[in-house]
Amino acid sequence: MELKRVVVTGLGALTPIGNNIQEYWNGLINGKSGAAPITYYDTEKHKTKFACEVKNFNVEDFIDRKEARRMDKFTQYAIVASDEAIKDAGITPDNVDKYRVGVIWGAGIGGLETFQEEVLNYAKGDGTPKFNPFFIPKMIADIAPGQISIKNGFMGPNYTTVSACASSANALIDAFNYIRIGLCDVIISGGSEAAVTIAGMGGFNSMHALSTRNESPETASRPFDATRDGFVLGEGAGALVLEEYEHAKARGAKIYCEIMGGGMSSDAYHLTAPHPEGIGVIAVMQNCLRDAQMNPEEIDHINTHGTSTPLGDVAELKAITAIFGDHAKTININSTKSMTGHLLGAAGGIEAIASILAIKHGIIPPTINHSVVDENINPELNLTLNKAQKREIKVAMSNTFGFGGHNACVLFKKVED
């Protein structure tokens, strides 16, 4: 079977540093931190009192009030980002076959806020199981792509991938494969998450995963810095329109880049910690390069998983050095989580977008908040510290890893013809 080429023709974003693609990109290249004290609930008794919330967002500007009340926040975010991506791609009922347009979405947790509210309300009662009739349809992780499909009439494959923080990268790989084997013309993909809740923050705090730098939230996410003390929880959504190359050309669509390959692997090591030598990360990057039929020397930029955890950052950079050897010193490496925080199941979506926009504009967003060198990190690596760097980027790699040892890697390439 001859595999078809797959390109990206639309982008949409709702993030802690910008509520659309242009705002998001401006935030990235200017090194904007999205971390601030939590506004959603009283944090007085909480260990971590800050997060990367979506800001200045009024759902009724985008979704009818009645409909919005039937959606958890993670679905609202998915609708807003996908609407932007679909419009950006110029997809209309007249220029696509609705039976060959799918939605494959990623979410690591789903409707956590809805679940929390319903259980707390039940606990306050007399034991009678009174629940909102929309409790289950709001909570389940697969409802976001369902809502996107219903709104747009897309009748192709429709489901959610769940692999913790690798969820939306896995969704992109699935979408890529469906198109390149000829089962779809277009797929809306990406991911969304809205876990900045009492349960979400409390749960991650209990496992000592979050930064507790309450005195300086904006500097708390500091990947690769020797003083990093955990990740900063973020929320939002990133949406991409993936399309078969000839189909996109026939529509006259603009093309951001081509997806060359996707890799997956498992650490098979620990529930939450990476293997210290990054063997699963080595495997996923090797698998991605093999799938793309590309050599390590062709990679110009890597958007790392880079969560700002003591173990994870070192393991990933060890893996990069193992795969790329001397060429690793010439690659622009960064972690945009230093600005957005960690969006869990949506991380792969917004970081894929960051990689694609870096290719388009020839600018690598910085890894901000770095001040203290970690002696465990190779000092010859260019981690794009604190300031954006200009360079031509032909090929960019995006890494995303999740609790449970789930690893996903996607390669994007500038389209030359």
List keywords for this structure.
417 residues, alpha/beta, ten-stranded mixed sheet, 13 helices, globular
Q: Helicity range of the residues?
A: 25-40%
Number of strands: 14
Strand order of the largest sheet: 5-4-6-7-1-8-14-13-9-10
Kindly estimate the percentage of residues that lie in beta strands according to DSSP: 15-25%
The outline comes out as: globular
**Mean residue pLDDT:** 97
For the termini, the CA-CA separation is 23 Å
Rounded to an integer, what's the Rg over CA atoms?
20 Å
Number of helices: 13
**Low-confidence parts:** none
Helix-strand topology string = EHEEHHEHHHEHEHEHEHEHEHHEEEE
Largest sheet: 10 strands, mixed
- The helix-and-strand class reads alpha/beta
Structure description:
With 417 residues, the protein is of the alpha/beta class. It has helices spanning 21-29, 65-68, 73-89, 112-124, 135-139, 143-152, 167-180, 198-206, 245-251, 279-292, 310-324, 337-340, 347-361, and strands spanning 6-14, 36-37, 50-51, 101-106, 158-161, 186-193, 236-244, 257-266, 301-303, 332-334, 363-364, 389-390, 395-402, 406-413. The strands form 3 sheets. It has a 10-stranded mixed beta sheet with strand order 5-4-6-7-1-8-14-13-9-10, sandwiched between helices. A two-stranded antiparallel ribbon has the order 2-3. Strand 9 (301-303), helix 11 and strand 10 form a beta-alpha-beta unit. Helix 3 packs across helix 6 and helix 7 (167-180) crosses helix 13 (347-361). The longest helix is centred in the first third of the chain and has 17 residues, at 73-89. The relative contact order is 0.18. The model has no long low-confidence stretch (mean pLDDT 97).
